[in-house]
Write a structure and sequence with these properties.
The chain is of the alpha/beta class. The strands form three sheets. It has a seven-stranded mixed β-sheet with strand order 5-4-1-6-10-7-11, with helices on both faces. A two-stranded antiparallel ribbon has the order 2-3. Pathway: Isoprenoid biosynthesis; isopentenyl diphosphate biosynthesis via DXP pathway; isopentenyl diphosphate from 1-deoxy-D-xylulose 5-phosphate: step 2/6.
């Protein structure tokens, strides 16, 4: 399980946050969201390398934060692409050849705990691709372009997908390269492996492992961290 490489895509602009800056730099309990997201992997004995992928204008700041918070497992801060998928591909290529299993985790998902990460790794053993997700609570309906309901999907078979997601590196690289060659974009990295026919295992996630997308998410993240401190 050791010798994992972590890719943290952090190049999104976070327009829904309305903060006027990359949401990963917003403060959460006195530290940038991105630092919360990276630190769990810095603490894990299973992780050998971390690559952070950022927007061109943010690279200098990310490097300053890496130095300031002494994140010595970060081996590269590289420039992202036009889409998240392009950024992940760049991050994977920045890992050393020794890394054979890759974990992808959102830079705006700061509440993953070390305990949940290690449980995820344990349950992902033996699978070439595994992702974290939680069962949906609401009834999900499919609609057409006019807003007319066309189907009610079976809730017990649906999951809201989170990160981390873990992959055998050769399969992840194959999926990304084949997608890039034909201009195919998936909704996440797992969807690329699904697209070329590789099985992906779903592993139960955590309700607290939220992605910070809106101001309400930031408020909720602060409440969750405050509860953990108690």
């Amino acid at each position: 399980m050791a010798n994992l490489g972590i890719v943290i895509p952090a190049a999104g602009q976070g327009k829904r946050m309305g903060a006027g800056c990359n949401k990963q730099f917003l403060q959460l309990k006195g530290q940038p969201i991105l630092i919360h997201a990276v630190r769990v992997f810095q603490m894990s004995d299973y992780v050998s390398e971390i690559v952070i992928v950022g927007a061109e204008n943010d690279l200098a700041l990310i490097k300053e934060l890496v130095d300031h918070y002494k994140l010595d497992k970060v081996v590269s801060v590289c420039q992202g692409g036009a889409q998240r998928q392009d950024s992940v591909r760049s991050g994977v290529l920045a890992l050393s050849p020794a890394i054979q299993r890759v974990v992808v985790h959102d830079g705006a998902r700061p509440l993953l705990t070390l305990k949940d990460f290690h449980r995820f790794l344990q349950e992902a053993e033996g699978f070439s691709a595994a992702i974290m997700g939680i069962q949906v609570k609401d009834t999900i309906k499919q609609v057409n372009n006019s807003g007319i309901v066309t189907d009610t999907l079976p809730r017990e078979l649906l999951r809201a997908v989170q990160t981390p997601q873990i992959f055998e590196r050769n399969k992840l690289e194959e999926a990304h390269m084949r997608a890039a060659s034909v201009g195919y974009y998936g909704t996440d990295d797992a969807s690329l492996l699904e697209w070329i026919g590789y099985p992906v295992q779903m592993i139960e996630g955590s309700l607290e492992n939220i992605k910070v997308t809106t101001p309400e998410d930031l408020w909720l993240s602060e409440r969750i961290l405050a509860m953990r401190e108690k």
